[in-house]
Sequence to fold (246 residues):
Amino acid sequence: MPKLCINIDHIATIREARKGIEPDPIIGAKLAIEAGIDGITVHLREDRRHINDRDVLLLSSILNPQSSILFTLEMAATEEMLAMAKKIKPGLITLVPEKRQELTTEGGLDVISQQKYLTNYLQNLHTSNLQVSIFINPNKKQIQAAKEIGADYVEIHTGPYAENPCKEELQRVKESITFGRSMGLLTNAGHGLNYENTYQIAQIPGIEQLHIGHSIISKAMLIGIKEAVQEMKEIIIKNSPQAISA
Ligand code: PXP
Fold:
């Protein structure tokens, strides 16, 4: 059965809309753990638009190597992130491409065009005993290149399937998982998965982890509204001039 890892960047995105302290993604992570999540995933971006250094440091102290919850750090293959990864030692590093203007990660990492750089980069991470995954489009040549640079895992980009959940896109994801495993890679999948399209991906044999964020956080917000409104209403009722003078 694939493990479910929740991407909590989306909680931090709401916090950053006010540049305040709530909602705190660390509290979100703790609640997800109480609910039975298998892993917590964060993307520390160069521009720190959602998750910040404080979040990552706190998570690494909660989800230390003794924890049964997998801590995945998504990051660009830069020198700054290399130093951060070595400092916090997450259970898994997922290398992703990063563009400042994008709303979210738009595509898989182009491994073929930077094979030499990435080979050295992965060797460096491996010397610190860190495991590395590559977020990759469902494309056999890129998956093969990921194997050649020494990746431990690939995470197959399910965005194209999520945008167009047709037989062909599903088949591309299935074949990529099978191909990755045949090359000796461990295989994950994620991006754009939601309550309507995940069932077809969950049925694919051989997926280690599913990394899902936006749809879970969106649902959590909506199913939490009733309780949140009731709690605020109670404060107003209890403190109304009528209640105080009674
Ligand atoms: N996997 C990777 C590599 C990602 O960059 C993201 C988005 O942060 C996800 C999975 C989760 O995608 P979504 O938020 O669409 O579920």
